[in-house]
Design brief:
The protein is 22% helix and 32% strand. With 947 residues, it is α+β, with helices and mostly antiparallel strands. β4 (169-176) and β5 (179-186) form a beta hairpin. The longest helix is centred in the N-terminal third of the chain and has 25 residues, at 20-44. The radius of gyration is 36 Å and the shape is globular.
């Protein structure tokens, strides 16, 4: 897509003169805004002087009056510095095919400014101007205009250009209407195109279109200039003085230029939208990761400007982003303070275009057919906001579209629209049930979905901008009447809202919104990395191809937005482009449920005894606990005073088949039923603050539970399930505090309770009496507990644990012990002893810092794995099948989770996004895939499918 984007003229060759500089600025600016500008225009089309003498300066008199846009560059050198050396946006774009030539030109222009004093005089004789024009045949032309400094003669300028062209092309002088014109033809146009220049009345002009340059020469001697156009002087007077550049937009001409990148099917519509406004001025500010434009848009009071519809409407707070899904690629929001006046102004605007009669007739036909005043029905329920949005996830027919109408009252609006459906059903001689259905989120939550059997109804009322919704299926979400093309697409939206996975929770969107005014009349947002899907049918093939080829760069230059709002009788505008250095693609999950904060404990599958389906229990970092069902919906959340320190156990307290959740915190035992209520007598305050997590055992599988927990007073307490101390528990105290949970192992027909303090290992019977005297004293590793190993014979049964240096101790149930040296480790290592390769023999697993090591029984290294950052959670062991064992590891700092195969390779599909310990299991029966539940650093709980 040429678009004549070579506005930095002879910057490419290597010895370029001064003229290059201007062109560089033009191309950079235009390419930055071109694709987003197309998007804005697509969404705006069909919708929507002060006479002060400003003395804009001589270069403006050379710009032809058909200019679509004019850039006034106030300090070219500063602009180059910001773009080329400071802009993260440019860092992404310069390596793409579309911008590679420009990057070369910018580098060369820098060298020209440093090495050629005469070129500096011309190029830095600020301000300079760059104008954009429709050049016909799907091309855009650019004109550069500089005022020639008094001490720089025409001869010197010709000499500079001749030096550039020497041995690289030819310069031909010709006469145009009595003026000298110079055509430069280059031997190699790979990096720069042929161009034409002229020097006339102290102005240096250059263009890659000879016709455009000739237009400029005629313009200089013409009677009417750009400054005589309605609104230009007023726009010029609003321009900021201490900004990088000023952008002036002629909305009467701009659609024709923008149509260059539009599919032929929509070109006529784009070009016809030349009544949005007159002129606008936007101040350009270039920052490291932000490109910001702000200024005023001027609309005449004649009524034939769409923007004038908002002139007397106060801006409103936008809330549609609280309903739209976070996967939205683009959305457009229109918000007004006075709907009645808005429609009056809109109808006057249509009359000015000669389109009101057609608009009115289409509504009259509907009213006569159904005996319903649809305009009145809509306006009666409408509050102040209407939105249209495109979801990035595509279906068979393309991206999903949504239309949201904010209503004054959900109950009032549903009553009115249900009555409409009923009346339309009667007219169609059908049952109202034909136009209603139910969408179920889960067994407890459902929504009614209605259908209005009229195609593009909302567009017939609000204008063609809102015709993207064809079939009108709708439901109600809070105070929004939400339309889409199918019940399935509405169901998807409903599910996202229930999970609170909405646009306003998206971090990139939140950063974008924070840079704009909180209130708007017109508001547009696009995720550029996704919007190619939403707008592909509107774009020309070359533009779409370029967009798709460079999608990786656009994903980092992720957010583009536009807002307009009424202010002091004028329309103030902000245009925003944002770069994200640490962009990561969204995870591909079954669902994502938003919590209040992040989590750092392991989510747990818990059985719903009523449905026999699994649910998820979790606690966030503010200590709030949640129960979440298989659809991802939060069934309840309850604040606790303390962090859970133990596993989550399910017990049958009443022995009636109903299950409760049992766990401990530093000062309490907690027993909560499935509805989130404490069981009687709970919470139970501990006799001493806990030094270790709770352990729960059902020795004989008869629901006669025993709970064990150690205190900071060095005692080990035994409780019954009702929170009472066990009578007959004889254990007195340990020598130091116990940090790891109490273990229960059965060897033969005997039960062993095993735990350890800092140096000593204790092996007791059920009543707390010493069953085995362990004589081995050693400093135990703080992060590890005892691992049971029963090789087959009772005499060989043993437990394994490491000391603070990583030395493995095997303690037998007769009191003897042996040691095994597998290398030296620090006291913060993780240790486990599991069969990883399915050969029936256990491997030694060590994880310290960033390194995972797995050794065979014969000490041979089975595999090792290195992570980018130190691991802070103990590896989890997953036994999927006899020969399918895996380790699950969390890299919290990277927000990644790994599943490591028994050969040391990462399991397919991993790593996944997540930063907490994770659980793998099933939500229901009869499924061939697992569900993996993990927390992430964006406050969401993720549900992945794992094969």
């Amino acid at each position: 897509m040429e678009l004549t984007f070579r506005f930095h003229w002879f910057l490419s060759s290597g010895r370029i003169p001064n003229v290059e500089r201007t062109l560089h600025m033009l191309k950079k600016k235009l390419l930055f805004g071109l694709i987003p500008a197309f998007i804005v225009l697509l969404l705006l089309f069909f919708f929507l002087k002060r006479d002060a003498k400003i003395g804009p300066g001589e270069p403006l008199r050379a710009i032809p009056v058909d200019a679509s846009a004019i850039i006034k560059i106030n300090d070219l050198e500063a602009v180059l510095q910001k773009i080329h050396k400071e802009s993260g946006i440019w860092d992404e774009l310069k390596n793409t095919s579309s911008f590679r030539r420009l990057a070369y030109q910018m580098q060369f222009l820098d060298s020209v400014l440093i090495s050629l004093p005469d070129a500096r005089q011309l190029l830095l004789n600020n301000p300079s101007y760059l104008s954009l024009h429709y050049a016909g045949k799907d091309k855009i032309g650019f004109l550069h205009v500089y005022r020639v400094p008094n001490n720089l003669s025409e001869r010197k300028i010709h000499t500079l250009i001749s030096r550039f062209v020497e041995n690289k092309g030819t310069i031909t002088e010709r006469n145009y209407d009595g003026k000298k014109v110079f055509d430069v033809r280059l031997l190699n146009t790979e990096r720069i195109n042929n161009f034409t220049y002229a020097i006339y009345k102290d102005l240096f002009m250059l263009s890659f279109s000879s016709l455009l340059l000739e237009d400029a020469l005629r313009q200089i001697d013409g009677d009417v200039s750009i400054t005589d156009q309605e609104g230009f002087n007023q726009a010029f007077s609003t321009a900021g003085k201490n900004v990088n550049a000023n952008l002036f937009l002629n909305f009467r001409n701009l659609p024709k230029s923008l149509s260059v990148g539009i599919n032929n099917e929509y070109k006529a519509e784009i070009r016809s939208f030349n009544t949005f406004a007159d002129w606008g001025e936007l101040d350009a500010n270039i920052m490291r990761d932000v490109f910001l434009l702000n200024g005023f848009i001027l609309a005449s009071d004649s009524g034939n400007c769409a923007a004038s519809v908002f002139a007397h409407q106060s801006p409103q707070k936008i809330t549609a982003d609280e309903i739209l899904p976070s996967s939205v690629a683009a959305c457009f929001v229109l918000s007004v303070s006075d709907p009645v006046r808005y429609f009056s102004s809109y109808h006057e605007y249509l009359k000015g275009l000669g389109k009101y009669n057609q608009y009115s007739r289409s509504l009259d036909v509907l009213e006569n057919t159904y005996e319903i005043d649809f305009l009145k029905e809509y306006t009666d329920v409408w509050d102040n906001e209407i939105s249209v949005a495109f979801d990035a996830a595509s279906g068979e027919k393309g991206p999903t579209s949504y239309l949201l109408l904010k209503v004054k009252s959900q109950s009032f609006a549903e009553e009115r629209f249900a009555a409409i459906v009923k009346k339309m059903a009667e007219k169609e001689s059908a049952s109202p049930e034909k136009y209603t259905s139910v969408y179920r989120i889960d067994n407890e939550l459902s929504y009614k979905i209605y259908q209005l059997p009229i195609r593009k109804l909302t567009g017939k009322i609000f204008g063609e901008l809102f015709t993207n919704i064809d079939e009108h299926y709708f439901t109600f979400i809070e105070n929004y009447l939400v339309f889409s093309d199918s019940p399935a697409s509405l169901g998807k939206l409903l599910h996202q809202v229930v999970l609170n996975k909405t646009l306003v929770t998206n971090q990139a969107y939140k950063d974008f919104k924070a840079n704009l005014s909180p209130k708007s009349n017109v508001y547009f947002y696009a995720n550029i990395g996704k919007s190619n899907v939403a707008f592909s049918k509107y774009l020309s093939a070359p533009l779409l191809k370029s967009w798709n080829e460079n999608i990786a760069a656009f994903q980092k230059i992720q957010v583009f937005g536009f807002q307009m709002y009424s202010s002091n009788g004028m329309l103030y505008s902000n245009v925003f482009l944002k770069h994200f250095t640490d962009f990561k693609d969204q995870p591909h999950t079954v669902w994502e449920s938003q919590l209040d904060t992040t989590i750092d404990i392991k989510p747990v599958f818990t059985l719903n005894h009523a449905t026999r389906q699994n649910e998820v229990f979790v606690q966030d970092e503010r200590n709030t606990i949640y129960l979440i069902n298989q659809a991802g919906r939060i069934l309840w959340k309850i604040p606790l005073n303390e962090k859970i320190t133990s596993e989550i156990f399910q017990v049958d307290y009443y022995k009636n088949g109903k299950l409760q959740l049992l766990f401990s915190s530093p000062h309490y035992l907690h027993l909560i039923d499935r509805n989130g209520n404490y069981v009687e007598k709970y919470p139970v305050k501990l006799r001493s603050p806990a030094s270790n997590p709770l352990a729960v055992f059902d020795y004989d599988k008869n629901k006669d539970y025993r709970m064990f927990i150690a205190g900071t007073d060095r005692k080990v307490y035994a409780y019954t399930v009702d929170g009472s101390l066990v009578k007959g528990w004889n254990f007195s105290s340990t020598e130091s505090e116990v940090a790891q949970p109490i273990n229960h192992f059965r060897v033969g027909d005997k039960d062993y309770l095993v735990f350890g303090d800092r140096l000593k290992t204790y092996i007791l019977d059920r009543r707390g009496n010493e069953r085995v005297n362990v004589t081995a004293y050693f400093p135990k590793s703080e992060l590890n507990n005892y691992v049971f190993d029963n090789p087959g014979r009772t005499a060989d049964a043993r437990i394994a644990i490491t000391d603070t240096a990583g030395l493995i101790y095997f303690i037998y149930f007769n009191g003897n012990h042996t040691t095994l040296y597998m290398g030296k480790y620090s006291g913060s290592h993780f240790f486990d002893y599991k069969d990883m390769d399915g050969d029936g023999k256990k491997e030694y697993i060590f994880l310290e810092g960033t390194r995972l090591l797995v050794f065979k029984e014969n000490k041979k290294l089975l595999y090792e794995f290195d992570f980018n950052h130190p691991i802070v959670f103990k590896p989890a062991y997953y036994n999927f099948a006899q020969n399918d064992k895996k380790l699950g590891i969390v890299s919290r700092e990277d927000n990644l989770i790994y599943m490591i195969n028994n050969d040391g390779k990462v399991y397919k599909g991993f790593p996944l996004r997540g930063n907490s310990p994770f659980s793998v299991g099933y939500f229901g029966e009869n499924t061939s895939t697992f569900n993996l539940i993990v927390g992430s650093n964006d406050n969401f709980l993720y549900n992945y499918t794992v094969q």
